[in-house]
Predict the structure.
Amino acid sequence: MDFIKQISSFIILLLLQIIVFNNFMFMGYLNPYVYILFIIMLPMNYSRTAVLLLAFAMGACVDIFENSGGVHTAATVFLAFVRRPLLQLSTQKRGIDFESLRIGKLPFSSFAPYAMLAVFVHHFMLFLIESYQLSDIGHVFIRTLASSLFTFVFIFLIHLWNFKKKD
Amino acid sequence: MRKLFSLLYRIRVFLLFAFLELIALIWISNSRSFQRAFVINSSNQISGSLLETTQNFEDYFNLKEQNKALAIENALLRATDSISQYELITNPIEKVDSTTMIRYTYVEGEIINSSYHKARNFMTINRGEIHGLTSNMGVISQNGIVGVTHKVSKHFCTVLPLINPLFRVSGKIKNSSFFGPIEWQGGNYQYAYLIDIPRYANIQVGDTIVTDSRSQLFPAGIPIGTIESHEMQEDQNFFKIKLKLSTDFASVNHIYVVQDKLKLELQELENQEPR
């Protein structure tokens, strides 16, 4: 049951990204990358190996459709790798019991910093790899901040909608 | 030995992570070089047809705008057609058609996927091998040049647009003989640079930059952009000219692929020269 749920959310987020969000380009420049919500929301009790492989699949799919040749794959796999430390950092707790933790049940005060950090880390890696040179770092930073904000708004809306549905 | 295995087992997640990142990096560096082939790109059948479906929806929303643009172009073409021309000089000798031949033909097509806000932009068009396309053919729009065809599959084709650092074309100031390479230096998709123009050239803001007859991709005289500003290069001997590109990459939709009937002959001839 859980498997079907994860597969369907994988497909739905991927299609949303390709059909809707990739055509956004606010001000010809900013694009939300909402598909990473899939990695953010994957249950914490999944093995880290599985999370890495799923992130790889998700990133590769987005790359194929965006013609971006591996950039999303690299950034998404990186996000999957640092997911647990990011959660630890944002909840300010030592020794979280990852087995019993439910991300969907987290209070908003813990979820928001976690999601924000995750989005920021992913976008920074994405734009840095895409620009391919360190001299552009200021430009990369501005793009990261602006696009992160944009992505986070959408992630927040989707999360809110999910939350309402469960109650 | 056992210690080594237990160490490898302990860092197995990190090893997997490093392995996946390595694959991604190889993919990235492969897609960065123009000569090497994309292993996977959107000229693939599956993603191509999905993107075309998406484009069909978008087309519907843009119908009004696109119709208007096409109507304007039609009007222009009608105006240049012989039936709407009044002959000022009647030539007593009948014009024989064999004095000219058609060198360039155009395949009309539509962009089904494109990006313009990235450091490396690409396009996909819904024309391919069955329409006679090969790689390295010029692509133009009604306003000016767009790019060059890259990978061609049966029904689709990727285009390397002007706003990709790998694209090279030489441009010429219209009505003068100065020419130089056009470079897009990242950032804004509306501007590119024409460099290496000698300092004694007379440059006016607003002048048109067109394709050069040295180009093997485009007919001479296709607009590239207009001069926005100019400055001296660091060596103080050449101008660096900022162009506003004629093609608006954010809204371009219909394109024409240029087929040069004399391209093979030209290439064969040039290949005979020792390099």
In short: The interface with chain B takes residues 18-19, 23, 25, 28-31, 48-49, 52-53, 55-56, 59, 63-71, 73-74, 77-78, 80-81, 129-132, 136, 139 of chain A (CB under 8 Å). The helical segments of chain A are 2-20, 37-41, 48-66, 71-81, 83-91, 108-131, 137-166.
